[in-house]
Fold this sequence. Notes:
Elements: E1 32-36, E2 41-45, E3 53-54, E4 63-68, E5 74-78, E6 83-87, E7 95-96, E8 105-110, E9 116-120, E10 125-129, E11 137-138, E12 147-152, E13 158-162, E14 167-171, E15 179-180, E16 189-194, E17 200-204, E18 209-213, E19 221-222, E20 231-236, E21 242-246, E22 251-255, E23 262-263, E24 272-276
Antiparallel strand pairs: 1-2, 1-24, 2-3, 4-5, 5-6, 6-7, 8-9, 9-10, 10-11, 12-13, 13-14, 14-15, 16-17, 17-18, 18-19, 20-21, 21-22, 22-23
Amino acid sequence: MAAALLLCAAPSASAAPGTVDGRPPAHGAAPLYISDYADNTVLRLPPGGGNPVTVAASGLTRPTGMALDASGDLYIADTGNNRVVRVPGDGGPQVTVDTTGLSRPIGLALKANGDLYIADSFNDRVVMVPADGSGQVAVPTDGLLHPSGLALDGAGNLFVADFVNDRVVRVPADGGPQTTVPTTGLSQPTGLAFDRRGNLFVSDSGNDRVVELSADGGPQRTVPATGLNSPYGLAFDPGGALYIADFNNDRVVMLPVRGGGRTLPVAGLRTPAGVAVPPGRDAYGGRPTER
């Protein structure tokens, strides 16, 4: 993903973000946020459908990963500006997160206590910004090359999409050694997301697919999504629907719980890189629920 995001995106249709054929971009019961990489904006789709609106984030350049906390504050990896910004949910002014030396930050992940993890891609590391303001620290990892997506499981273990090394690694919450997650045939993994049953989903961007790694150690499977082209960000809504930022197709795909899939009718997207949904009640390790 890091290498791909250096390329200039080819413009698509010039229509402003909105609806297609008069149909509202209906989705789940929670708002959906989309980082529109080439347009330097973040969009918010209201719960249950309606026209998208542009999030009041100023000065973004090539936004990618996002994360939301329980109070509704939105964190955005402002990749082209080598920073992370926080847009308060109450409409307050945008704040730049206090970090040091970031270079092309991409993936973000938030713990329930507010600690923020950042994939500092061009520095080949992951850093953590504690909620208590004690200052940025490096997460102990080994051999990362352009880390991309991040995700936390219910136990607080951190998972990192190691883009150039074609792997996903697990960094234990207890400080134990990093391990490589067993996968088959990954090429340039980007986005990561857990469903509420603990299964890990990976955007296998070099293979134009999303794969699911079962929590019980079962075989890897390919998610049934048609025509993906460099999928990047992933997110689940509280109802279990999966959203995929289909980067090179200028669209976001939704896969409902009961199967099937469709493109959200949002006009004017240009290389969407990230998707995010506010955390549900089980998003940080509550009781497992059916996906």
